[in-house]
């Protein structure tokens, strides 16, 4: 991955620059394996619900919602895998909203910037999401589901994928637990309290 | 196939029903304990935050499931929506052996004497059905004691100057404070308030053959992997089973209490694990299904003498006065990390504002809150703070271990219109009409919550918090895990559903033993009080049982 690519979060670009200084420019190897570009890697057996294009879009949305900096973001933590899996499980009821909402995001992107969402610069992607969040996205691009409602759904599901248990496909490598400084996996039987006074 | 007739069928194995089953079977009655859920353990879902009883986004860890259960909620503006058990508004407790007591936070509060005579103490505000209980604290005191010793409580009421009188101390020493609670304790002392350890239905030392708590952060909302948290499923229910008189029949969904033409309960219709309709006849029936489901079951039990549902004949009070708690509190950020990997949190409490607050009726206990797990914390932020993007992520990273939280349950003024009834259209998997929840909170609850939030804010300020934000509930209908009040006990059959022993007016062999009985719901988590009511009702039945007493 090119750290200067326009839709890599600026926070991540900074982190990579620091790294490249520290290790004398050998960023390609280290950064590359660390970031392990997963864009095109479908889960074993393929995507459960998303098309490849939808998966890429959700991954980009999750990265905007939780951008990478010194800690992994939505993309590295595998948020899209979490959402994809839930949409054929407990979140079946949201399938229609995702199908429609993701198409609407692309419509909005072409209306606002005349480009696909993935081709937008980071800041333009952010602008689009701010418009959705605040209900200012062009109404005609949002048949079926309101922009704000859809954004809040993706936001919430991204948080679940990032901060929830890794067993559901997200939070890869305990990314969020490590970021928060939480020990994981939990070691049973460790009593850290001082002994109760009788 | 006809099922063997028994002396008693108890519906629901939670805080109330588990205790009743034990009291009756120990007294020699044959008992069938019907539970719609199954036996569950920590290992069904491990430490999975997204399927816990606290965060239910991917489902309720301990039931009920989204596939077979529904409820209807009527919003303040009159709109009606169908809600799934994992969605907000459903007011889920749990559906498993032990019910909420398998996975609860396990606070072990006794209500205070004033909580049993709210009308006498304060007078009834307009728009409320506030009343005294037909029993006093002194009546229930021995039952609280039994609950504390038989189920297991760690605490030390002597440190609480507002504690109600007791004959025997709590059986286990209290839990020591974690870092957050030590900071709050010091601030409380500086303010001249009275900190003491939160009493817990959790083992601080080995008790009743089970080990001491090992302080996981995954506690509230989870079952305990080592059985150090005490619910009915690992205390009284095993005792009941050991008598040889009690059969726990799981995955059994009660649909109707059968009442004959003379107005006697004959038994219970229920769907078994294979969805087959069964009839369990009994000499007496005890309903302990929680405030929502108990009311629903009574209302769905129509008979010649009770065409509007069992016990719903005189004043038609079944399902009314639904209460919970107006939960409120404050969070604040401090400079130093106060997080300790020592669950479940919630260590220090104070009861300086439960009663005697000028211009208010009641109040509530306040305590440090249980540890917020990472996803739950992602929704914790000051008003106006970014909810996504780098700023949000940074807030999480900087503040997860530096957030103080003091919360508590405000005692609510009962409102007649806050109610559970049955929806005329929506049915569950078994074709049983579902519960419909409607109504609103009393405005006084919001006022009391604002007062309590003021105290919490002052406390956090004293503790050194820089940025403080608060949480005050709105007027939306109450209920939730602390649901109560829908089959109020009372002396006047016109304004209550049962007498003071939980015996339904006009149906002598039908009893209720759960939070439905609560006339008011105290300013405390109600689990121990529901357990005490289990002893109260169960003890009464056992004493009055003469082998034929309830036989028709």
Structure description:
The complex is a heterodimer of chains A (198) and B (552). Chain A has helices at 10-22, 27-35, 52-65, 79-87, 95-113, 122-133, 147-163, 175-180. By secondary structure, chain A is mostly helical. The longest helix of chain A has 19 residues, at 95-113. The radius of gyration of chain A is 19 Å and the shape is globular. The N and C termini of chain A lie far apart (59 Å). Mean pLDDT of chain A is 84; it is low at 20-39 and 193-198. In chain B, helix 1 (15-26) runs parallel beside helix 10 (527-544). With 552 residues, chain B is an alpha/beta fold. Chain B has 10 helices and 17 strands. Chain B is 21% helix and 17% strand. In chain B, the strands form 3 sheets. In chain B, strands 1, 2, 6, 7, 8, 9 and 17 form a 7-stranded mixed β-sheet that branches. Chain B has helices spanning 15-26, 118-122, 137-152, 179-191, 236-242, 290-299, 374-378, 389-399, 443-462, 527-544, and strands spanning 6-11, 31-34, 71-74, 80-83, 196-197, 246-249, 253-259, 265-271, 277-287, 326-333, 348-350, 366-368, 403-410, 419-427, 433-438, 467-471, 510-512. In chain B, 60% of the residues are buried.
Helices and strands in order:
The complex is a heterodimer of chains A (198) and B (552).
Chain A: H1 10-22, H2 27-35, H3 52-65, H4 79-87, H5 95-113, H6 122-133, H7 147-163, H8 175-180
Helix pairs in contact in A: 3-4, 3-7, 4-7, 6-7
Chain B: E1 6-11, H1 15-26, E2 31-34, E3 71-74, E4 80-83, H2 118-122, H3 137-152, H4 179-191, E5 196-197, H5 236-242, E6 246-249, E7 253-259, E8 265-271, E9 277-287, H6 290-299, E10 326-333, E11 348-350, E12 366-368, H7 374-378, H8 389-399, E13 403-410, E14 419-427, E15 433-438, H9 443-462, E16 467-471, E17 510-512, H10 527-544
Parallel strand pairs in B: 1-2, 1-9, 2-6, 3-15, 9-17
Antiparallel strand pairs in B: 3-4, 5-11, 7-8, 8-9, 10-13, 10-16, 11-12, 12-13, 14-15
Helix pairs in contact in B: 1-5, 1-10, 3-10
